[in-house]
Amino acid sequence: MVEDKPKQTLQNMLNDRESDPTHLLQTLIEVQQAFRYIPHDAIDRLAESLGLGRAFILGVIEFYSFLHLEPRGEYDILLSDNATDQMQGSRLLAELLSRRLAVPIGGTRGDYRVSLGYTSCTGMGDQGPAALVNGRAVTRLSSERIDRMVSLIEQALPLDQWPSELFAVTAGVKRRDIILNSDYSAGAAIRHALEHGPEALLDLLEQSGLRGCGGAGFSTGKKWRFCAGAEAAEHYVVCNADEGEPGTFKDRYLLQAHADRLFEGMTLCAAVIGARRGFLYLRGEYRYLLEPLHKTLQQRREHNLLGRSILGRQGFDFDIEIHLGAGAYICGEESALIESLEGKRGIPRNRPPFPVIQGYRGMPTVVNNVETLANAAMIAQQGAAWFRSVGTAQSPGTKLLSISGDCERPGIYEFPFGTPIGEILAACQAHHTQAVQIGGAAGRLIPATEFGRTLAFEDLATGGSFMVFNQGRELLKAIDNFSRFFSHESCGFCTPCRVGTSMLVRQLGKVMVGHATTKDLDELATLGTLMRQTSHCGLGQTAANPILDGLEKFPGIFQARLRSTSFEPAFDLDASLQEARALTGRNDPGAHLEGGGV
Amino acid sequence: MSPSFKIDGVTVPFEAGQSIMEAALAAKIYIPHLCHNPEFHPHGSCRLCCVTTDGRSVAACTTPALDGMEVANETHEITTQRRLLLKLLFVEGNHVCPACEKSGACQLQAVAYHCGMLAPEFVHFYPRRAVDASHPETIIDFNRCILCELCVRASREYDKKGVFSIGGRGIQAHLMINSPSGKLGDSRFSAADKAARVCPVGAILPKHRGYEVPIGKRLYDQESISRVGDVAAHQERDHDE
Description:
- The complex is a heterodimer.
- Chain A has 6 domains: 7-63, no CATH class; 75-170, Glutaredoxin (3-Layer(aba) Sandwich); 175-388, NADH-ubiquinone oxidoreductase 51kDa subunit (Rossmann fold), CATH 3.40.50; 398-473, Roll (Ubiquitin-like (UB roll)), CATH 3.10.20; 476-559, de novo design (two linked rop proteins), CATH 1.20.1440.230; 571-598, no CATH class.
- In chain A, the strands form 3 sheets. In chain A, strands 6-12-11-15-13-14 form a 6-stranded mixed beta sheet.
- Chain A has helices spanning 7-15, 24-35, 40-50, 54-63, 83-87, 90-101, 143-154, 178-181, 188-208, 220-229, 250-257, 259-273, 290-302, 334-341, 370-382, 384-388, 421-427, 475-489, 495-512, 518-534, 538-542, 545-553, 555-559, 573-576, 578-584; strands at residues 75-80, 107-108, 114-119, 131-133, 136-138, 173-175, 236-241, 277-282, 319-324, 365-369, 398-405, 411-416, 433-438, 444-447, 465-470.
- Chain A is α/β, with parallel strands linked by helices.
- Chain B is an alpha+beta fold.
- Chain B has 2 domains: 4-74, Ubiquitin-like (UB roll) (Roll), CATH 3.10.20.740; 80-240, Alpha-Beta Plaits (2-Layer Sandwich).
- In chain B, the strands form 3 sheets. In chain B, strands 2-1-5-3-4 form a 5-stranded mixed beta sheet, with no helix packed on it.
- Chains A and B meet through helix 4, helix 18, helix 19 and helix 20 of A and helix 2 and strand 8 of B.
């Protein structure tokens, strides 16, 4: 049974917070960690202390995958379910865990010792199959590791006493270029900004041509300039570390190995736009980084790189808070991220107004990806010409790639923009490659005939995900995986994405089981195009990419599974009669439709 | 000269700050919509009002009008797109027009007729959703909710009660009621609330009244929605009388 923690604990947790509704999500995450669910008692108290409706709080809880209204087991195991995890055998390992622990996948054991389920990509594609146990990342799962986990769980050994190698996350940098080959000098970028002023820094950024590394590629200099120019009582800088795109893990590496650069970049931005507060929005899956990141922040405060009068400049006060996500891919969209920072459901906002004009708490806000901010710091330190020394005219500099899937050397690669896909495949030692998914589930599926194309905003843009599929892989399975991912992660706000993502999954399912006809493929294309054209945000606009690219670039993998008839019902007529047969106790040939009713 | 733009070739004047939808409504040009109601903040969720300008599809209700812009509204392509969106709304809910009290005065039905949607095309989801009849004066049939959030906005912005909010995610997204039991009867909702009169479909209906206006004599039985506009405006008028 779940042991009820003393009410005092909850009271303390709630008392620690001011009565500010923007604290709702962070408080809920703490309560979930402490109690393994959100007790109704907590909802009532939060409703009262924050002045929010019960239904509003329930709506927030239901929105985030890592918050629960029913108790989870003492060990809450979530297996990363990305296509690359599956290629590494994660589904079999899940079944093994389920058998050994006697817990159904997607369920909790009767004694509340353990819960088991799947979760969206946890950002460990180079060291999968991966899982989260009570939010802690576990890597390189194997049947041997599963055996160890089962025995630790049955012994009820607390997680902090588990062997640390289970939680080891290695850096795995396989290629360095100008960014990773340069040494960071603490405070150099901030000093540059303080000495030369915001205008000079903005000019420098614009000269460097730095573009948003999350994938959208908006000019960083312009973004900061817009924000700096917006008159308001407060300005904010937010680092988007909600690296949720399946197959991406380069921000994980930066957060782990180069957090100082990132914080330097945020402080630099604060100096330019006049921010006093900054936020790092860290995806819940990277919770294991929370402690080291807090430590780095503390060190920076001690070195006067954060806090009051930074580097002795009177009036330059700035500090950074870390907010956790709770399992919602959509919060990687900048306006949804801001909603989430404000403690709400992560529904993307209508634009205009853009966050640089009205963002966090309605104030001008810069939201940048981890890599963008780290690069900005290095550019302020090294100069615009240095950054432009590699890359293309439209895409200067380099891009960090997270390479996973069918290759001998998965990991982090820094490549100059303009590098052909074929060269990247050679570097990671991929052989007999059938296709590459560039830019994650929302990205593009590239066949071998297009490996001469290049990594660049003007050709193949990517936030950093690079998943390789060799010729032995069933691409349709990956497409199905990505489509399911989107239906799970759709926020549900707009019609085409809310309904369309679910319809695509069902329709593709019909193809997978060999029940589809040509008409069904047309329907997939029609729905996908509708979603691309009319969805409210990038999620819905890209959710059909895997299917649309598949239909265009690999029509054969769909055609091979079609029935030859022109129309197939969506259900099996004969199977539908099963209930009637059971009720009437009949099973004679007359109670069956020949050939499944076709 | 006051600024203007064109919708399907017709010149539409506008004031700075107006959206395409607001300017179109003022000029009596119909852009199909469900979640928009000029009394509340634009929402942009139903996507029916998507028009194209500069080669891009944008929601008319949330996109500011710009001087000289050319907007395509009722083209064959856009109407086909709208018909698809409408079909999606029918797929996710349980909309049985012949058995619905709102039939003939339902905006979803009327827009569907306007866009030429005459038959279902896709497999419907047939979700199981309970009806909430706990309130003495008003019934909520979640089967018909299209998540336009007009009741959410009306209760929050106008009634200042916050009776409604949204829970779940993706296809599980659903309307929720703010009360200890989650039932409307335990909430602060009253049939006199603005939120009781804004539902464009038959999800929020008054109790104890049925078929007061016979089928065939209802709002959209008389005139196309492109001429008589939103049902909410008529519900508001009836309320005032």
